Amino acid sequence: MSEWFKADKKAKARFAGPAEAGLPIPTRIMSNGEYSPLPQTESQRRVEGALWEIADQLAPRFGLSRRAFLRSSMGMAAAFAALNSVFGPAYAMAQDELSDGDAGADWAQRHADQFIFDGHLHFVHDEYQWPGILGFRNAARMMQADGIPQRAPDFEDVKFLNFVKEVYFDSDTTVGIVSTATSDDPGRRFLTNEQIARDVARLNSAAGSRRLMGHAAFHPGIDGWRDALDEAIEVHRPISWKGYTVGDPLSPQSVAPWRLDDEELVYPAYERMVEAGITNVCIHKGLMPADYATRMPDLWPYATVDDVGQAAQDWPQLNFIIYHAALRPVVMFDPGFVQSFEETGRMEWASELAEIPARYGVSNVYADVGTSFGQGAITQPRLAAALMSILARGLGADRVLWGSDAVWWGSPQWQIEAFRRIEVDEDLQNRFGLPPLGTSDGELKTRILGLNSAEIYGFSAEERTVAHYRDDRLSQHKSAYLDSEGEPSNAYHGFIEDAD
Ligand SMILES: [Zn+2]
């Protein structure tokens, strides 16, 4: 065992603790930026009911407890069967997947060589104390029928060690980038640029290969921001940049929002980035709680993609990677949003993003799909599939990048599985000219899940294969973990105790 793993008692307990039960997918989701969860929707309640029903039926057939069944690959498959039963057949199921204990192993084997590059990961530093952050995980908790106690999320859930466990041990993720957020209140920042650099080095030295890369945040207009940019370039050497044009995403107030196409303020910073050879610029857009439009009308326009096209045109040396695909709402099940999509085939502001290459004649605009795909996958699979198709059609098949926003949503495995299985409804393909996403190991999905990011981050041909990492120390630990404790934790949310 590597040093950080062995040295930390809490880590040991976390990795080797008693089996934790949970559903394989979240069946509840948060509503807004202040993280007050909405009551579970009727559809989500039905998904959960269907899933328990399948588990009750099938678990005894395989001599498994309900809990063991839900933690198995059949449990994951059952979750997609439950989603299909409520929303219609959005998810492909392998033949006999729910009735043949070996089918799950075959499915896993089929994807064992699929390289997964998650460009959108999070954890918080060890002294982090802003409780608002736990709202994310609270929101993704399994809300059970009355009377089943759950463990509330705690800060350990969103710190480094649990991040390592949930991302690398409990999912198929091969490599990733850890991000952070700018905030007017330094106490709310997830990680400083220095902490990112330190934890990236810590993981990679334990792993014995480059499994994690890091962002450096930049925040034009706040005191000392140019010095911070210089320090990042000289000392921390991030793989890419992260900025929030709304300024502070964690507060409805923000002292310093900014625009990507602000020539006076921001273009000199782009100049520095180009000189430094760090040319991927990741920008949070969209994902705005509905009431921000009225509560903060001045800030709201900074979350749109109005400033992307001009900046991309003026800076062909840079890639602009728009996080969350600029999808406007935090949740897709907003009835107005669904209705507008069904009528027009468009999704605010993701469609605007997808149209930028045609409007501005640029080829340096990308979409990250963090949270936007995941929340849609469990609340509106039909729209989640369409979102991916809209992006691939407009930006190009090589300009849509995988991101999960883990660990906010727990282990990213359910999102990976959802994307492998999802397809655009034929009716939508025909009505709106949306291209299909194809099979789980087909070209488009394989590109989106990993090869597109490998390309823009300059990975060698070997570095973009799973084989390259198969013998590193992280892989060795993972095999030992899977052999001994044996089961992923489904630990993206609170835990259900005594589920049996
Ligand atoms: Zn994020």
Roughly what fraction of the amino acids lie in strands? 5-15%
- The radius of gyration over CA amounts to 21 Å
Order of neighbouring strands in the sheet with most strands: 1-3-4-5-6-7-8-9
CATH class of the largest domain: Alpha Beta
Query: Gap between N and C termini, in Å?
Result: 33 Å
So, the CATH homologous superfamily of the largest domain? Metal-dependent hydrolases
The largest sheet, given as strand count, sense and whether it forms a barrel, is: 8 strands, parallel
User: What is the helix fraction of residues, given as a range?
Assistant: 40-55%
Shape: globular
Q: Tell me the CATH topology of the largest domain.
A: TIM Barrel
List the helices and strands and how they pair.
Elements: H1 3-7, H2 9-16, H3 42-61, H4 66-71, H5 73-87, H6 103-110, E1 117-121, H7 134-139, E2 150-151, H8 160-169, E3 175-178, H9 193-207, E4 212-217, H10 225-236, E5 240-244, H11 267-276, E6 280-284, H12 292-295, H13 308-314, E7 319-323, H14 335-344, H15 350-354, H16 356-360, E8 365-368, H17 372-379, H18 381-395, E9 400-401, H19 413-421, H20 426-432, H21 443-456, H22 473-484, E10 495-496
Parallel strand pairs: 1-3, 3-4, 4-5, 5-6, 6-7, 7-8, 8-9
Antiparallel strand pairs: 2-10
The structure holds zinc ion (ZN).
Zinc ion is lined by residues 120, 122, 179, 370, 405.
